[in-house]
Amino acid sequence: MTASPDLGTQASPAPTELPAAAYPEGAVSPAYTAGEEVPASGVFGSDVFGADAFRSVFRRHAAGVAVITAAGTRPAGFTATSLTSVSAEPPLVSFGISTAGSAWRTVADAAYLGVHILGEHQEDLAATFARSGADRFAPPTAWAPGPYGVPLLEDVSAWLVARVVSRIPAGDHRVVIAQAVAGAPDGPARPLLYHQGRFNALRH
Question: Is the pLDDT of residue 61 over 50?
Answer without folding.
Answer: yes
